[in-house]
Amino acid sequence: MTLEEVLIQKPSERAQCTGKALEEVLVSAKATECLTIGVYESAKVMNVDPDSVTFCVLAMDEDFECDIALQIHFTLIQAFCFDNDISIVRVNDIQRLVETVGDKSGQLEDAHCVLITNPADGSCEDPALEKLHLFCEESRSYNEWVPEITLPER
Fold first, then answer.
1. Which one, of 110, 100, 101, 33, lies nearest residue 77 by Cα?
2. Strands (E), 5-59
3. Of the four listed, 28, 55, 90, 96, which is most buried by Cβ atoms within 10 Å?
4. Is beta strand 53-59 parallel, antiparallel or unpaired with respect to 113-117?
5. What is the pTM of this model?
6. pLDDT tens-digit profile of 17-74?
């Protein structure tokens, strides 16, 4: 999908389309072991090998407003992503994100940050990931630096 095709979609279609694309990318990255889950684990990967990171997902929950440490971590992660040209989005349903990237029990201690990294063999051509990059590029043109995406219901 080209940027022009993304631009002519209605906002509701675009939101639904990007939610499905994000879910596809997360499932695919999980299958190829290209996910890093957790704020601290993500910070380690960004520090050691920032060039391997292709996409970042930040998950908000009801505790976010009260958790100053988490807000600081989010600010630092966002700054790092901006400085390194890493596309970044926010999801508002951490439980849905956990269902998508977690194990069969659906339990994860910290899924507030999920990184998608390049596979070891270097092949990272994923149409859904490209669609997300285009969505982020378009959002930045409207000064929405960390766009929010809603994952589809199961």
1. 110
2. 35-37, 53-59
3. 55
4. antiparallel
5. 0.85
6. 899 999 999 999 999 999 999 999 999 999 999 999 999 999 988 878 888 999 999 9
